[in-house]
Amino acid sequence: MLDRSFIRLQLKSTEALSGFFFQGKFQWCGEDIQSVHYIPAKADVTKLHSTVLNFLPEPVVVHSSVHGLICCRSCFPSQNPIIYVCNPVNKEWVSLPYPESDFQDSLALGFDPFVDPIDVKTNFKVIRVYEVEADMDNMDDIRYSFDIYSSQTGTWRKAVEICQCSSHLCKNKGLFVKGIFYWLTGGDKILMFDVKNEFSLLITVPLPLTQFNSIPEMCIGECDGRLHYVLISEHGLQLWVLEEQYTSQWDLKCSISLDKFEEENRVFAYNVREKITGPPASSPWIDPLVFKDGMLLMKITTDIFLFDFEAVKLKRLCSLYQLGPNSSNSSIVLPYTMSLVPLDYL
Asked: InterPro entries from the entry (predicted)?
């Protein structure tokens, strides 16, 4: 058993992106796909791993990742669904009860070893965000409720806060950045939940979607402890950073024109402007999946690439075919950073 003080020091020096968890999803079915692939980010030749989570008691659906821990749940259908928080490196895990489980729930893991030291025990929170019955005065809006699980108490409780939003949640299940949870929606808003103060907020994205001639693609992610927003449109590839947690003030950190993107990546990308501005398709030609530490995992036609914003370079990792037959739409993609965080106190 490694000393917890050593593990805390290791966390400070190894916060680099390790890879990505990728799980396909049925588009029109209430059942889950059981296979989960791990895609290494730094290997010269990418080898997919499909047994990384096999130490868990059952097949799972991944929902959230932070500081080396993964939050996942039982695959549906399940008579007794369970939530797991696990560490794939040391193969330790804990299980939580799943209150009123629903296929559409989003689960997000909150854990910060630099704010809540792990010298004695590993404390974390899990947030369950879900849709509740619409307000009779405004049937067009979606109302989101939040349940909070604390590992310190071992119990769930419902937050008083209710957030009204005009759009459904999409893409990445939930992002935790310095005590704040974020969810991307299908509209012009990002749903924010402050778990300490238990209040929510809708953050407006940097550019309204109505200003584009073609359909833009976007995702959110974290870098240097700040929320980032990736936008791909006829204007190019843009990387925005949120200036203040409780505002909608964004700073344009990086902007790469489509011509520059194509010029630097001619082997993989050609006629980029025509393809991005062309007629809408059932699956976008280019799709940003998840951003972490300056690196963007993205889909281009039928392949998965890692894009380095600073170098403006694409690296092909694998094909969608290698990830399974239902990997092209609505897939779950999580960035992962290896750590030795223990879950051995229960």
From this structure: At3g26010-like (IPR055290), Beta-prop_At3g26010-like (IPR056592), F-box-assoc_interact_dom (IPR017451)
Q: What is the C-alpha separation between 317 and 183, in angstroms, rounded?
A: 26
**Is the four-CA dihedral 38, 171, 267, 310 of positive or negative sign?**
negative
Options 3.30.70.20, 2.120.10.30, 3.40.980.10, 3.40.1160.10; CATH for 4-336 is: 2.120.10.30
For the stretch 213-240, pLDDT in tens is 888 999 999 999 999 999 999 999 999 9
Order of all β-strands in the sheet with 199-204: 175-177, 180-184, 189-194, 199-204
DSSP state of 134: P
Q: 107-155, pLDDT tens digit by residue?
A: 999 998 877 766 667 899 999 999 987 766 666 789 999 999 999 999 9
Closest by Cα among 235, 265, 270, 239 to 252: 239
